[in-house]
Structures are given as structure tokens and as C-alpha cells.
Amino acid sequence: MSPNAAPDTRAVNVLKGLIMDATRKANSGHPGGAMSSADFAYVLFKDFLRFDPDDPAWFNRDRFVLSAGHESMLLYSLLFFRGILTIEDLQHFRQWGSRTPGHPERDHTPGVEATTGPLGQGFGMAVGMAVAETMLRARLGADVVDHYTYALASDGDLQEPVCLGAASLAGLWGLGRLIVFHDSNKIQLAGPTNRSDCANYAKVFEGFCWQVIEIDGHDHDRIRKAVADARLETAKPTLIVCHTDMAKGAFSVEGDFNTHGAPLPPEEIAATKKKFGLDPEAQFQAPADALETFRARFPALREGAAKWRAGLDAKVDADADFTILWREIKRAPGNRKLAWPEFAPGTKVATRKAWGDCLNKLAGQLNFLCGGSADLDPSNQTVKFRELATVYGTANLAGRSLAFGVREFPMGAIANGLALHGGIVPFGATFLVFSDYERNALRLSALQKLPVLHVFTHDSFYVGEDGPTHQPVEHISSLRLIPNMLVLRPADATETAACLNVALTQTDRPSCLLLTRQSLPVLDPKKYPAVADGARHGGYVLADPPKGKPDLILLSCGSEIHLALETAALLTQYKVRVVNMPCMELFDAQPQSYKDAVLPPGVAKRAAVEAGRGELWRKYAGCDAPVLAIDHFCHSAPAAVLVKEYGFTPENFAGMIRERYPVK
After folding, report:
1. Among this protein's residues, is 465 annotated catalytic?
2. Engineering a disulfide at 566: which of 148, 210, 360, 650 sits with its beta carbon 3.0 to 4.6 angstroms away?
């Protein structure tokens, strides 16, 4: 045994006491897994994790992701040991306004690297962080970037397909500085894992090109050796399978699956504390000797962080090329000044093609723009970026094109991890209909306030012959329902660039860019001057009647803006205003005076059109307004046939409007 075995065991027992007390006081939480993971998590934080005790956001810190977010009290207790949280924070676990919510939230609690809880995604985000580390190290140098990414995954995490998809990519990419602890306590919320899983994850991960180490997850010497061996393997990520006991150390319920999701009874806690050598009557015990044992490495950690900062300052002073790159990764997105391609009025360009042209233009402007498609490079127009930025992999760590394969959900989680790490501008692309595969990662983008760019092409039934499986109907509206998410649907190539400019200058919101497969006319900026910049307001007046105030407003966005303009030309008996609404979320955030100027309250006659669900348009058009939309699954046929069958013609839309608003 290590000479520090007794003090370390005492410190772990103190951790477990805090876990039991906090979950009991909250009458809510998950103590069992937190207790089964306590030994190896403690050893990692005490003996290996590199951080600055005085600055949780230090750039070159090791990242730790608690993918098993239900074990949050373990992380909070370790952050208390680090001096980031207080006993009062632990006492307010899961309470209103506390820094210790039920699952870790990265913008809420210092020291929390990622918002976790939806199982499997923390693992995927850790993969993204590890990718970011390798990319930045290749560009900035190992003297500036040389940290590790650690994650703690539960049995439930590994059952989620998003975890396995991300793991396959991590092995392909040879992420040698990614080390994942698998808390293999063989228990999940509903009971033993063998009721629902027969997988041998050691063999699975070996098949994914990982190094796998199996240990007793309660043996501190074995844990230390496993971490040391994992750090020696530079060509593969490492999975450390820690065979543990649920609620390890509990007096009478060790191994009981009921401890997974419910606080221990008071008498069980008292008996367990007595077994641990703690006062059975006292709560939230934090003896000084346990904290001193944990913090023994703090002087060396502070010295290492100070040395790194001094080296960074010297490199900035001596290396002009490095300084340019360093300033770029530290520059706030809102300060980016980007140049965009120009598109000739009157030509026809699919907005997905316009996105590809913009992406190619960006490749040389944003040195840390990184991403790719879910096996749809030609369709998503990312082939040229792949050629310009080169494919990322073990032989090319400076590459910025990520070959995600058919893995939409892992793509979204990895993109979130890239953003969480910092220094990388991430994007991912697929068909809009497949946003459902990625949806929970999109939600975590928004919840974590990450400026990730999610690109979705083939945005309507105009996909045509591919049929209903590939024709999105509800997806546009569905994405608009996610709080803190910008959904941008440009009307033409010029507005595609404007929407991208909006997305890439966000600081705390992700963006979904929805693009057409079919070609659209490029609007003439002389006739429609607002198209060049109106997207930043979310909605704007695209066209007005030549004389007088409007008495009818047509609302639309995306490809249907052109239908609205053609319809307006047929409605000669009205004074028609056409309002383009590429982003409802941005429009809703405008001052009321601006919104009233675009949609004058006195103009009650309104109509809207979009090739998707129409319900959300009624908050602008009115409950009884004509809304031409799609509320059914579509059919396999050429797009021109579908246009007529579904009534997406100027004649039909104009007829709906005349019927609703007859001119007397």
C-alpha cells in the first residue's frame, strides 16, 4: 500500500460523507454511483489532474467531464476539496439559486467543464475537447497546449449509441490524451445491468482501437498505475474499466440498486459514517487533515501554472506568427470582421451552394474553423473545405475537416466539446430531416450557450424524389421551439452570407442554418437593399407597395420568399408589404418600436407561407390569417409536381388571400 493510503482513505470517506449528507438534505439525488466512483475520482483529482488552484478557467488545465452527470455530488464534493465551492454550496444541493444544481451546468458552477446528465453526451463532448487539444497543440505548440481530457462514464453512458459513435471516432483519430474511466458497478436505475446488456465493453473498445485497462476501482495503487499507463499510451485513447461496488462502503446497502437514484436513510448514513470513522451525528464534515491531504500538490500546481504563463508571455513577445494565432483564438466572436463572396443578381443559386462558397471563403479567414458533414460532403457542399482545410487524423493533426461518418448525434456532441474547450470555431452539417438524430446535442448547445454552427441542407419537400423519409415537414418549427437557439433560413445566396455572419458573431447562442437543395434567384440588392443586412434584425421589410401605406402583409422566409413576392405581384387590388423573417428569434428580441414598424399593428390583413408546419407563423399573421404550409407527410415525386399538388403556387396563395380578405 502507498504510505498515504490511510490519509487518502480518510479523505475518500469524507467525500462519501458529503455525498450522503447533501443528497439526504435535498431528499433527492444519486448517492450510489457517486460513492462507487469516489476512489478513482479522488485519486485522479489529487494526484494527476492538472489545474490552477486559483483559476478554474486556466487555458492549459486538464479537462474533466462527468459524463455520468447524475453523480454530480461527487464532482461538487471534489470542487469543495479544491476550494472552488463551499460547504454552504453543498448544503444547498438541488435548491433554487444554488451553485450545485441536480446535474452539472458549465455556465453555472466554476470548475464544471460541461453540462451533463443526458447520458452518453458527456463522453462525446470529452472527445470534442480532446480533438481541440490536439488541433491547438499542432498549431500553437506543445509548450502552450499539452493537457489531457478525462471523463467519468457510467454503465448507462456506454449503453447510449452516441457514446459508442463518439468512441469509434476517438479511436480512429488516435486521441492519446483522452482517458475515460468506466465506473463498472453493474447497476443502473432499474436494476442490474445484466437485465438489459450483455456487452463486453473491454472488447468493444479494443475493437474501436482503444487501449483498455481493467482494475479494481477501489484499489488506489492500481488506480494510480492505470492512469500512469494510460498517459504513456500516446497513440490511442484509453478506457480504464473500474470494477466497483455501488454505494461502496455503505453499512448495509452496498451493492443495492436502490441507492442509485435515492438518498440513503438517516440511520444508514449514521451507521456508515461510524464505519468510516466519522461522527455519526454530524453533517457536512470537512476535517482539515482531509483537505490538507488532498491539497498537498497545490504549491506545485501553482508553480506549473505560473511557469506556463511566463512561457506564454515570452512566446507572444518573440513570435509574431504565434501571436496572430493566439489573438485569434482569444478574440470574442462579436469582434470578427469577415469577408463574404458576392453573388450576381438574377442568377440562380441554391442556398446550400451559397453556404459552400461562403465556407470556402471562410477557410482562409478563420484559422480555427473546424467541422464537417455526417457523410454528406457533396450534398452539404463541404468537399472544397475538406480539400482546403485538409482532413484531420493521426497523420494530420493540423487538419480541420472532420470525417464524422454517418453519426449525426456524435457529431453534435463532439462539436459542443470543441466549443467548450475554447479556441475552435466548430460546425457540423447534415440534412434537415436528420436533425432529429442530433436533437439532444442541439438542445445541449443551446443550454450551454455555445456558439456552435449547425448546418442543415435539403430543408423542405423540394427534395422531391427522395420522398417523405427525406422531406422535412415539422423540423423547422421543431428547431424554433428550442430556447436560446437561432434558426436562420435565408431567402437567397446573399442572405445566406448575412445569416452566416450573424451565426459566427454570436457569443452565447448556437445557430441552425437551414438551406435549400433547389436553386433560388439571387435578389437584386438595388431593388431589395435590405437583403444584404436585414437578417441581423431577424425580420424586415423586403418590399413595399409603390405608393401609400400597406393594407396587406405577406410573411415568409427561405425559398418561399420568392413565392410571396410573386404572389404580391398578383394581388393588384391590395397595397402589399412583403416581410422576410429569416430568424424569428432575432426578430422577437428587437425593440417593440422596430417590430411595430415592420408589422404595423393597424394592418390586420396578413398571410404567411412556408414549406413546413405553419402554426408558429400565426403569432405574426394572426389566428385567422391564411397560412400556406405543410401539415402532412409528403410524397416521392419531382419537386415541380409537388409544388402544384400542394398548392405552393402564386395563384393558389393569392386565391387563399382573396377569399379571406375580399375587396368590397
Report:
1. no
2. 650
